[in-house]
Amino acid sequence: MLMSVAMAIANASIESVVRMLLSNPDVVVKSFAVMVIQFIVGAVFGYFAVRALKYILALIGLTLLLSYVTTIISPIPISTDSLLQVAKTLLPIFTLSTGPFLAGVIIGGMIGLFRR
Question: How far is residue 20's CA from residue 9's CA, in Å, rounded to a whole number?
């Protein structure tokens, strides 16, 4: 049922979408429930991400310091191209594409920043 509604929405005008949603209230309820769950997951993720930010920054700083020390000590240069390659492959994992999740991350991050 949800799939047929989604396909009809993709090929319809706003008036027909509203008419279809009003005729199928269970779709509205399920969509709202999914949005609420996405928001809650985003808020939890944002809260813990902000709380862990100092440890992540410390890990990045330690990694940069160790890579600098190893370039001084060892004659083998460390390539930053490989680090950029890894960062480019991991970037899609960290991108936020859904609205409720992004709103939850922002609100959860603000709660994590201001709560002691």
Answer: 9
Residue 77, φ and ψ in degrees, nearest 5 = -75, 145
What does the angle CA 103 – CA 108 – CA 114 come to, to the nearest 5 degrees?
Answer: 130
Please tell me the distance from the alpha carbon of residue 38 to that of residue 103, in angstroms, as a whole number.
9
Lowest mean pLDDT among 20-29, 47-56, 88-97, 102-111: 88-97
Give the pair of three-digit tokens for residue 44.
């939890």
Tokens of 85: 């390659």
Given pLDDT bands bounded at 50, 70 and 90, which one contains residue 12? low
| Contact assessment for residue 103 and residue 41, using Cβ atoms and an 8 Å cutoff | no
39 within 8 A of 100, measured Cβ to Cβ: yes
Question: How does the average pLDDT of the chain come out, rounded?
Answer: 75
> Degrees (nearest 5) of the Cα angle 113, 33, 2?
135
Query: Would you kindly state where each structural domain of the chain is located, as residue ranges?
Result: 2-114
